[in-house]
Hints:
Order of helices and strands: EEHEEHEHEEHHHEHEHEHHE
Radius of gyration: 21 Å
Largest sheet: 9 strands, mixed
Structural class: alpha/beta
Helix content: 25-40%
Shape: elongated
CATH superfamily: 2-enoyl-CoA Hydratase, Chain A, domain 1
Strand content: 15-25%
Amino acid sequence: xxxxxxxxxxxxxxxxxxxxxxxxxxxxxxxxxxxxxxxxxxxxxxxxxxxxxxxxxxxxxxxxxxxxxxxxxxxxxxxxxxxxxxxxxxxxxxxxxxxxxxxxxxxxxxxxxxxxxxxxxxxxxxxxxxxxxxxxxxxxxxxxxxxxxxxxxxxxxxxxxxxxxxxxxxxxxxxxxxxxxxxxxxxxxxxxxxxxxxxxxxxxxxxxxxxxxxxxxxxxxxxxxxxxxxxxxxxxxxxxxxxxxxxxxxxxxxxxxxxxxxxxxxxxxxxxxxxxxxxxxxxxx
Length: 285
């Protein structure tokens, strides 16, 4: 079985397995799904392997990736195998649930099943700087999470209920896709992370192994008897000058700051997240 990386695979000429990477914090799903949707329509692409190195991320995009991976098998008849290489936590694990089989390295970290929202209170800093911030609003909850004041107990209770609702969505997906009882899921859905070995014992993954093992599973599920060609979708990395062309100097500076903040996980305050925060310090390929 050959692992081949094409710079620009314009045309696939033999039975193939698509290798997709899901790396870093999941801020949106557009780039990943663009590649998935493009290649899953090709008759010669018989299966998909998703290599995951991610601490999770924003709820909506994580759920969208999950749904489209599941749809790849249900509508297109092409099996999808997830491979947890080093980290597949929270939203990344949610996404992996959309696959037909999950392979994890023994030492990979998985799980962190839960929901989190983080806020910052700068009230004392504003007072020190002699800055007064206030809002005029139309409803009692309209400025919930504002950084210029403490959060009230009713607001905290409201957000806690919101998080519980989203956690239920996560747990329901595990019950359905991993064939576990809700009692079994409740035992592990407390934010803990597990090694690949521990996750396999808890039925959160199907097997332990390497990328090569994940490819073999995909080939078997796709009923491929010959040696399939395995290819990676080309990485789209626009040149910085192309990215910034046409912008004013101020806009260019803002874009650079936004991108750096995104990659460092600094712009997640107030967002509803399936995220393993400690994973932000991990280096991703």
